[in-house]
Design brief:
By secondary structure, the protein is an alpha/beta fold. It has five domains: 1-42 and 153-168, DNA polymerase, domain 1; 47-140, Beta Barrel (OB fold (Dihydrolipoamide Acetyltransferase, E2P)); 175-230 and 637-681, no CATH class; 244-431, P-loop containing nucleotide triphosphate hydrolases (Rossmann fold, 3-Layer(aba) Sandwich); 442-598, 3-Layer(aba) Sandwich (Rossmann fold), CATH 3.40.50.300. It is 38% helix and 18% strand. The strands form four sheets. Strands 12-13-11-14-15-10-16 form a seven-stranded parallel beta sheet, sandwiched between helices. Helix 18 (558-565) links the parallel strand 21 and strand 22 (576-580). The protein is globular, with a radius of gyration of 31 Å. Bound molecules: adenosine-5'-diphosphate and magnesium ion. Magnesium ion (MG) binds at residues 289-290, 384, 539. Residues 253-256, 259, 283, 285-291, 411, 435, 539, 541, 543, 570 line the site of adenosine-5'-diphosphate.
């Protein structure tokens, strides 16, 4: 099989240079690649329906005799319409073809065929428009439907696949060892490839799918594990002394038990003599991850090394910077901020101080991982809101030092099964406790008619000293204008409802220094109300804010809403989240009611994944994992099975580099190369 990936697609007969290019367009370069070009759907010709059972609008396969010769007729524009009647003993169907002058010579009166197509009821007749057909005996089974591109028909693709399959040797070396297949009921690769393309029946297809889906997931799983193993070989930056107790004295509050445990995990990892720390801190919004990270940074700095803290947005980086400035005011920690929007000269100065070691704790955005940024002796790399960064970006930050420790933080409650894969290369500390005196946010769903009441409620909160957010989604250009744009909406609020209240606006099109200014004024309580688009989504911390009203709530995913809601309820005040939706279908309502029913991010994430699938859940491949060809991250059952298999494989074979797993290792490398990752050695 391995050699098939080296065989160019043009080796197949009937595939010249031009067709090969079209295949390339579909992402297929080699014969092996073609075998992995799985059908996107199937037509089931294995289940034959009787004509009297056909329903209007359904797609069926029928077995019927052509009772009349096909008659051609010319219609307007010189086009041809061909018709015939077919019978199966329970009824008749008219078959209709357009513009195919060969039909009449392809179908013979009195012969039996399989016809496959969509059924239309037309007055007294049942019609099948432009059905596909094949003589009885050759067409049965399940037919693959491939993703196509102009100039390359499904038929050509399917013929090429047939050829490729015939080139496979009878006994192919299966990357999944036989004992593993036997234990978990997975069919062999040869059978799987045959049946994923040309299954005889639904059962054969299911067997093939199970094998290929599970394999892809446990190959990924094993790959993520060996990423982790990889860094185990070397020893990390040496941290000798633990300063976490000193750090705690700097805080204006006491750590929760969960925070203490997380800090301890970090200190243990960093002071251990072996490998560098590779740790994920997972905790729901508001659980206090920043302070845990700050503690780790402090210990690293006090041991004479630099620490870098990377955030996904400018606003967040700035906010962390300010928090840290206050926290470390009377210490010898020397702080720096590095973001993309800063003046070149300023950036240059910060970069100089990083490379000469004058700054020992830097907070920043992606600007931290550009080539220009160099560190003197990076000891700890922290990434906040990890789901916003890919595995590759994480690696890049680590690459700025010699085996620095790594701490990643995530509030995105990723469903457990998926988390095991995505974070398969990390140890995990979970902060499952909110700071004391936090009250759960009360959430309600209203329609636009109650908007006025919601405004009044916001006013009363503001009157008693609190602050509020109103969120409306960013309007893309050319979108329906019944979705309020942040600016217009805010202008109206300022002029009417909230004319005697200071209102700030942030939206996506503002320059980041403008946004920051507004955010800072809001944080300083110069604005009582902030009208915003999703830019406030992650991390922003204003404990005095007690209400968030979210317009067009139906436009957000549940996980996003949960993040937004996390902007309130961060202090000691009872807080509220008001979801507004005017166009609330029953389904939307059900979805939004999940928000009202629970504050548990994990439940919400599971619901979100169930309802929307992982594509939306993560936005644009934000998880940084390689792209799957057949597996689906929402398929929890397969995720669980693959996890079990990966455990079993590591238990039995111990080392992924052992000879029995040679072929499997090659599959892992191929998967990660496809995702733009470096080969795992
Ligand atoms: P997140 O986990 O969402 O990043 P933050 O680290 O921003 O949360 O913390 C949220 C808020 O809770 C901040 O205002 C922070 O100062 C406060 N906080 C964190 N830990 C505690 C604690 N143990 N007791 C009281 N307040 C805390
Ligand atoms: Mg945070």
């Amino acid at each position: 099989m391995a050699s098939m990936y080296k065989m160019p697609i043009s080796k197949l007969s009937g595939i010249g240079k031009k067709r090969a290019e079209l295949f390339n367009k579909l992402g297929v370069q080699s014969v092996g690649g073609l075998l992995n070009f799985y059908p996107r759907a199937y037509e089931d010709w294995s289940k034959i329906e009787k004509i009297d059972k056909l329903k209007h609008g359904g797609t069926y396969c029928i077995k019927a005799v052509l009772g009349t010769p096909i008659s051609d007729a010319k219609i307007s524009g010189g086009r041809i319409i061909s018709k015939g009647m077919v019978y199966d003993g329970t009824g008749s169907v008219q078959i209709v073809f357009f513009n195919n002058k060969y039909i009449s010579s392809m179908l013979n009166e009195g012969e039996e065929y399989l016809f496959y197509g969509k059924i239309n009821f037309k007055s007294f007749e049942k019609q099948m428009l432009a059905p596909m057909f094949s003589p009885v005996g050759s067409g049965a089974g399940i037919h693959p439907i491939y993703r196509q591109t102009a100039g390359l028909s499904g038929k050509t693709i399917s013929n090429a696949v047939k050829q490729a399959l015939s080139l496979l040797p009878k006994e192919i070396n299966d990357p999944v060892p036989e004992p593993v297949r036997r234990k978990f009921g997975l069919c062999g690769l040869r059978q799987a490839l045959n049946d994923i393309h040309f299954p005889k029946n639904a059962e054969a297809l299911e067997t093939a799918r199970k094998r290929l889906v599970t394999e892809e997931l446990f190959v990924l799983n094993l790959g993520m594990r060996s990423l982790k193993e990889h860094s185990r070989g070397v020893s990390g930056v040496k941290i000798k002394d633990d300063y976490s107790n000193d750090f705690e004295r700097l805080l204006p509050f006491k750590f929760t038990g969960a925070q203490k445990r997380a800090v301890k995990d970090c200190i243990n990892d960093m002071t251990a003599k072996s490998a560098p720390m590779n740790r994920l801190i997972q905790g729901d919004v508001g659980s206090g991850k920043t302070a845990v990270a700050a503690s780790a940074c402090y210990t690293v700095v006090k041991n004479g090394f630099q620490a870098a803290f990377m955030a996904p947005t400018e606003i967040l980086a700035r906010q962390h910077y300010e928090t840290f400035c206050r926290l470390f005011e009377n210490t010898d920690v020397k702080l720096g901020l590095l973001t993309g929007s800063m003046k070149e000269s300023e950036k240059k100065r910060i970069r100089q101080d990083l490379s000469n070691g004058k700054i020992n704790l830097v907070i920043g955005t992606h600007a931290l991982i550009t080539d220009k940024t160099e560190f003197n002796n990076l000891g700890l790399a922290v990434t906040d809101e990890q789901h916003r960064f890919g595995v590759a970006q994480r690696a890049k930050l680590i690459g700025k030092g010699k085996n620095p420790h790594l701490l990643v933080m995530s509030a995105t409650p990723i469903p457990r099964t998926l988390g095991l894969i995505i974070f398969g290369d990390l140890d995990i500390s979970i902060i499952d406790e909110l700071p004391p005196s936090r009250k759960p946010v009360k959430t309600m769903l209203i329609d636009g008619q109650k908007r006025k009441r919601a405004y009044n409620f916001i006013k009363s909160e503001i009157k008693s000293g609190r602050q509020a957010y109103i969120v409306c989604p960013l309007v893309e250009e050319g979108e329906l204008d019944n979705v309020a744009s942040a600016e217009e909406y805010a202008a109206e609020l300022m002029l009417k409802e909230f004319s005697d209240i200071p209102v700030g606006i942030v939206h996506g099109q503002m320059k980041s220094d403008e946004k920051d200014e507004v955010m800072q004024k809001f944080a300083a309580n110069e604005y009582s109300l902030l009208v915003a688009t999703t830019v406030i989504e992650v991390g922003v911390d204003v404990p005095n804010a007690s209400v968030i009203m979210i317009e067009n709530a139906e436009r957000f995913g549940l996980s996003q809403l949960h993040q937004l809601r996390g902007r309130v309820g961060r202090g000691k005040f009872q807080s509220y989240c008001v979801l507004v939706s005017d166009r609330c279908s029953a389904e939307t309502k059900k979805r939004l009611e999940v928000m009202c029913a629970t504050n548990d991010g994990f439940i919400i994430a599971d619901e979100d994944l169930k309802m929307r699938g992982p594509g939306d859940f993560f936005g644009e491949r934000q998880h940084g994992l390689p792209r799957m060809t057949i597996a689906d991250f929402a398929d929890t059952k397969s995720l669980e099975l693959s996890q079990k298999i990966a455990d079993y494989i590591m238990f039995v074979y111990k080392d992924i580099r052992c000879d029995e797993l040679r072929l499997l290792k090659a599959e892992i490398d191929r998967l990660f190369e496809r995702g733009g990752h470096n080969s795992l050695n």
